Amino acid sequence: MIAIYPGSFDPITLGHIDLIERGAKLFTMVVVAVLRNPNKIPLFTVNQRLEQIRLSMQHLPNVDVDSFDGLTVKYAQMRGAQVLLRGLRAISDFEVELQMAHTNKTLSTQIETVFLATSNEYSFLSSSVVREIARFGGSVDHLVPPHVARDIYQCYAQNHPVSNPIKTEVI
Ligand code: ADP
């Protein structure tokens, strides 16, 4: 059974990776699908995010990395997938995720949304938390893989000289 794991991944975090690793044990293949969203100004381009995810997941042969735009269920149908994989961290995720799952069900009755609960140690972790810490010069070394941390520091060093990261643990 093929599962699509759609998201922004701007950038991929250890929370995402944990979910993908657990999903890869449950499904024949997990396709990590980066949404091309013209309404958001991202920190990283889609191509940069694809590269970051590929490097993070190269230890798992049944994980594919791709990008898509438009409806997730249409993309899932195109890939021959039966499952949309999503993560749940808190009640706030639950409301949004349930609405999305129900909406997607109205679009395709063949595709099921499967939720995995966050691992305890990543329950606070989101891409926006990572961006916020880095923006104010904190260390994100404990939240993302080393190659992603390097990209983040480089990005803020170039675009935001004031927020040059100081290597301190902020959390
Ligand atoms: P973020 O909320 O980090 O910006 P994305 O849009 O990239 O995330 O999220 C894709 C999916 O990954 C969503 O279902 C989200 O709930 C899930 N997710 C993100 N971070 C975590 C985490 N730390 N633990 C479990 N699931 C997560």
Bound molecules: adenosine-5'-diphosphate
Strand order of the largest sheet: 3-2-1-4-5
* Secondary-structure class: alpha/beta
String of helices and strands: EHEHEHEHEHH
- CATH superfamily heading: HUPs
Note poorly predicted spans: 161-171
Please state the CA-atom Rg, rounded to the nearest Å: 16 Å
Cα distance spanning the termini: 38 Å
Total DSSP helices: 6
**Roughly what is the average pLDDT, rounded to an integer?**
92
CATH uppermost class: Alpha Beta
What is the beta-strand fraction?
15-25%
What share of the residues lie within helices? 40-55%
What composes the largest sheet? Answer: 5 strands, parallel
- Indicate the CATH architecture: 3-Layer(aba) Sandwich
Morphology: globular
CATH fold annotation: Rossmann fold
Number of domains: 1
Number of strands: 5
Structure description:
The protein is α/β, with parallel strands linked by helices. 43% of the residues lie in helices and 18% in strands. It has 6 helices and 5 strands, in the order E-H-E-H-E-H-E-H-E-H-H. The protein has helices spanning 14-26, 46-57, 72-79, 91-107, 127-135, 146-159; strands at residues 2-7, 29-35, 63-68, 83-88, 112-117. Strands 3-2-1-4-5 form a 5-stranded parallel β-sheet, with helices on both faces. The radius of gyration is 16 Å and the shape is globular. It starts with a strand and ends in a 12-residue tail after the last helix. Residues 161-171 have low confidence and may be disordered. Bound molecules: adenosine-5'-diphosphate. The site of adenosine-5'-diphosphate (ADP) has 17 residues, from helix 1, strand 4 and helix 5. Residues 7-9, 13, 15-16, 19, 86-87, 89, 93, 118, 122, 125-128 line the site of adenosine-5'-diphosphate.
